[in-house]
Amino acid sequence: MMGPTDQGASYRLTSPTAMPKASAFLWNRRMMISLTCRGFATAQFMQPEPAKYAHAPNLEAKTFMQPENPYYAHHPGRFVYVRDDAAGDIYSIPHEPVRRPWDDFAFIAGQSEVSWRLGQPGLAFEWVLSLSEDDLVELWTLKVRNTGTEARALSLYPYFPVGYMSWMNQSGQYHPELAAIICSSVTPYQKVEDYFKNKDFKDKTCLIAEIAPDAFEVRQEAFEGEGGLMHPDALREEHLGCNDARYETPVCAMQYRLTLTPGEERSYRFLFGPAFDEAEVAALRERYFSQDGFSQATDAYRHYVASGRGSLRIETPDAALDNFVNHWLDRQVFYHGDVNRLSTDPQTRNYLQDNMGMVYLQPQKARAAFLKALSQQHRAGEMPDGILLHPGAELKYINQIPHYDQNVWLPVCLSAYLDETGDRAILDERLPYGDSDQQATVLAKINQAMAWLEQNVDERGLSYIAQGDWCDPMNMVGYKGKGVSIWLTLASAYAMKLWADICEGHGEPELAAHHRTVAERFNDAANRHGWDGHWYGRGISDNGQAFGVASDEEGRIFLNPQSWAMLSGAASPEQQQSLMAAVTEQLETPYGVAMLAPAYTRMHEHIGRVTQKHPGSAENGSVYNHASAFYVYALYEAGLADKGYTLLRQMLPCDDTALARGQLPVFIPNYYRGAYRQFPRTAGRSSQLFNTGTIHWFYRCLIDGLFGLKGDGDALRVTPKLPAHWQSAKVTRRFRGAELEVEMRREPGVSAITLELDGKAVAGQRLTGLEPGRRYQLRVRLPEASA
Amino acid sequence: MMGPTDQGASYRLTSPTAMPKASAFLWNRRMMISLTCRGFATAQFMQPEPAKYAHAPNLEAKTFMQPENPYYAHHPGRFVYVRDDAAGDIYSIPHEPVRRPWDDFAFIAGQSEVSWRLGQPGLAFEWVLSLSEDDLVELWTLKVRNTGTEARALSLYPYFPVGYMSWMNQSGQYHPELAAIICSSVTPYQKVEDYFKNKDFKDKTCLIAEIAPDAFEVRQEAFEGEGGLMHPDALREEHLGCNDARYETPVCAMQYRLTLTPGEERSYRFLFGPAFDEAEVAALRERYFSQDGFSQATDAYRHYVASGRGSLRIETPDAALDNFVNHWLDRQVFYHGDVNRLSTDPQTRNYLQDNMGMVYLQPQKARAAFLKALSQQHRAGEMPDGILLHPGAELKYINQIPHYDQNVWLPVCLSAYLDETGDRAILDERLPYGDSDQQATVLAKINQAMAWLEQNVDERGLSYIAQGDWCDPMNMVGYKGKGVSIWLTLASAYAMKLWADICEGHGEPELAAHHRTVAERFNDAANRHGWDGHWYGRGISDNGQAFGVASDEEGRIFLNPQSWAMLSGAASPEQQQSLMAAVTEQLETPYGVAMLAPAYTRMHEHIGRVTQKHPGSAENGSVYNHASAFYVYALYEAGLADKGYTLLRQMLPCDDTALARGQLPVFIPNYYRGAYRQFPRTAGRSSQLFNTGTIHWFYRCLIDGLFGLKGDGDALRVTPKLPAHWQSAKVTRRFRGAELEVEMRREPGVSAITLELDGKAVAGQRLTGLEPGRRYQLRVRLPEASA
After folding, report:
1. Is A617 helix (H, G, I), strand (E, B) or coil?
2. What is the ipTM of this complex?
3. Of A187, A192, A398, which has the smallest distance from its Cβ to B189's Cβ?
4. Entry pTM
5. Count of structural domains, chain A
């Protein structure tokens, strides 16, 4: 039903009903489109805030990209109705809206295009989407071929619903000189100041055809009639009605009548997207439909996606992992790092982590992002809750709510950058503040950030949580200014230790010593007040109520404090054993490790309101892959290669449970539905949402953990942690301009890891003196796994 | 296809396709529901801001009630699927979602219930909605009867879609002990301060059945399957699947299996609405399904609607007008005056006018409203842009935008109140200000309001428009503080004159004289700078650009300045002839008088941005009935009885063009689509929106104009203006507690109006000394119409 094609560079799904919500996405720096296998689409573009050009049929709320997006018959999508003009049969490409099964169906999620291949006796179709690198336009190709022995008379009807564009002004018309349907809307009633912000909006939506259609329909109501989307009235007529839409819901529908002789193939191309005016539509037509504009654009887009090539290629006993890492991992990291999830004010922790992943792809971009973020630090040391990417951007709802963990991510993300690049010069860069023109070096600024964390504690030395830390739903446990976060206390300790190491490496031993002392203080406080006997609690609320502890009925254990207690060194070996046992018992599921359990099913007012998210969804008891990745990273750091590998693999939607998750293995979703013990029916379901910090930690789990090929000062440290059942693995690792072809192999009689570079034995596990532009052969001999 | 039933107390439509958007509405003080003949529904309730309990299938934007609401297959509605268990045939009540035609179809819009009667050979159905007077609950009754000669095995499936309740937490379950499906949601991620505002929200939606169903379905996806709403998969099975919904779009669907012998009838009752918790659902069940709770509630609701009885019953040669006035006019006025369009911050001009209509129904309510509004006046004299009805209410978007006409409505509305009640004591009431505890009398306050208008003019004496006056789309012509409104200048003159009369009647001749002088000054300024040769212009923008003038290509003439120039006395008889000719030529259409023409088709930046509304819609060139009513009122004031009647009747959707308007004659919509000369296809289409100030002016056109039975100081003044082709009319007029049975008749030889009260001739046209509680017979003899 599903499998890789072309050596994994694309994935193919052969049924539209088995995984009806399976989806794939394409993006460029200004837009994004997610398509389900049935043809529904969710697209956004930036102007500069996220906007839409294909709308729901009712007035939509503006929102960020939703997980588990609900679909319904009139959801926006990109379709082609097909009518056999002789028999009168009606189908639709790819599956919606008619839902009549094709004999052959394939949904193919590629790197830089998404396509369908469909067949009926005697007919074959291809329906392909690519994007351009820079324009706000979808590039569609429809191919039809007569694979039979008789001539076929067909009508093809590209059908692009546009939906309810505006409650004040929407209309649509066919423009014969452009072979385009242009639907217009106007931003509704607005204040003067909004008007000047909005007046350049691309409020039009256009469908431009390379070949002028034989007929068209612009009025949704006229298209559907009483037959509805499954049997549109318009298709009962010889020709579409050629109507316009005047303050009526518009649609872009066209009709091509053709007769295909046996073996004959035809191809049609379309552009769909937003536009400011007719002149822009004309310019798009000119650019893409004269000479080779269209194919040049799809080529350029392919190169754009390929330019997000990362530092790792692998060949292991695990083909699915190989496929994911070699074809999809970089792509998802690149999406995050290059476009920041299509927001103008990314949350600081997201922005820093999304650029942590870019360290392995385009470290210069990561560097620039870290500097941009730090230049918005407050003079008092605290990072803002969101980073403004444009001069006119504003911190929106969630970023107006104080979360106290933002500073932690500075050393966490910077350490990955320094490991990968060795670029310690970044520490001496001088930057302003968000609220002051005064300048300071990155070193000084992060010292300030660490000092802020150090001081932002209660009398017990526990970190205040305010209205949230990493976990949004905990937004009401500390709003009175007393509640504390055990996780944040541990994360602060870990951040301090990382920072101490960086200071040390930068010739600042006193700073290092200071931060190590502070880290121990945080760890001590967490152990004294946060250790609940068998695991670490999550926090203590304004009311003095500990939560995430054994006495809780719901939310009894949270994953994050356990992971970060391992990373920070707070947990002794005995504590580590104990907390891991608790995680196994209470959080592990066939679909991964849940973020907390049991999921909250109601508000817990006595603690402070704890979560309003649905049990098992998002951060309330889901298998939240971002948190899972922290845990896996901690397991690897603790040297637990087998456990690490097992849980790492669960994040990937390419094993036996893939079907249950409803997810193609082309990206790791932000979560799989959790609450496995409470609501087993829905557990494991994929969010289908590709926005997630998971992917960057997944990268680090591979680099620092599984393959152990991590930068360390001026060297590459080699510390593989292959699972016991792997005898060998090949890795191509790009590192600071050099390329290493690494072969790792367990060999009898090897008692400790030994390295051989270009045939020469290397002492220890650090490779120094690697030169940019050179290619190295590295043999890594590993001990055999103990039985 | 359509006609009155029961002497006009309800209207019947017998085809679901001829007028697919024909709708009717019910309301109580806390909720409102509008139903189309096909079963789609739009409902809102107050908590205290408008909220929903049945949602679209995607995340909806919050908005005020929309005109020309677009419907689509998954739009919320109230339906019953019907399956013939023997034949397998599927229908749906009332028409959607299956859309299979019934042999008999009737949609019956009643005063206090909306119902359908449907028939197939051998089967008859009734589907009836009423509301309760106080609760947030829909009361549904389903009746089925076997009208054939064979037993029939049926499944009935009440199907109430609930839609996408919340993007963070939605679920649904059947509760057997309550025979109810309860769908739950939680208000999504929110700031601390919002949480405490939102925590008591009724975030649940319930369907409660009197009789426990045989099966149920709560998961929308499981109900539909691949068959979709037209052929739901769930109906192919013997029984519904009895599933719950967990972070899945919920639905309230139930199944009843029954066998009906010939002649047998069954009845099922349901409650649908929002609830806070299960306890509230249980309480609703107890209240409505034990003893006679259900029928007592529908009775009480009938009485509530009937309590909005007004001051006029008529019997004229115009049966359609009689029907509307005797059955629907009061109801629509009452809806506005009693619930303020379900808002918490009604625009000041709406609030005052909605209560102007209440003057004829419940003058005490109108009085209280005028005092409430005035007590929010700013100390500087200006009325705020919206009136806050609750302590926690806030002025929302549009009411944060300065509109400079709010003061005008004080004397305009108060004069109707004083005419109807003679209650001059209101002028001596002492009230605080919105921004000060200082108190002043109503008289003093309105003097201040008039002084504010007097001073808020430019060097030419023209009234500044700021970001708008009565007409919202003109929001950008004066934002720089220079633009002026000719309409507002004329309206200020009219307000001054009305106020002068009130002062005069209150023994303040000097005030009266002053305000008459100011009125003349306004009129002079309008004539000097606003008269465009053949009609009055609309205004002069910040840039000094006159608009609404002959040199304009679009927006060349506006109706309002013409109407108010007639009312204010600015227009000389010659000017009146000229401007009426211009209105006839440019604004009159078969569907009424357009508010401006030609409609704007684009922004006019050189003027100031003029309108973003669609040409022909809402205020951009529509037949905006509110403006039409001003004009009709002005025509009557000018003594133009025939013209007044002709245009008055065009507002009513009960003539030959009713079909084109798509509107049942149970309310006057806020507009009929205009731009008749530009876009004839859509002209005349009804907005289907029953929120409109039109209705109050329609009342005044009848009281002050057509029937001329208007209060005047301590008297009732009798000045009928029957159209020439009416020989007679009977009117029952309630006036200050008395009731007059009036018979008007043209008689040969009568040269001027003569009155006979209880058989005695009355000198002049003023009836004084009418006593509350008494019933009078009034004969009015009128001259014959000149040929």
Report:
1. coil
2. 0.94
3. A398
4. 0.95
5. 2
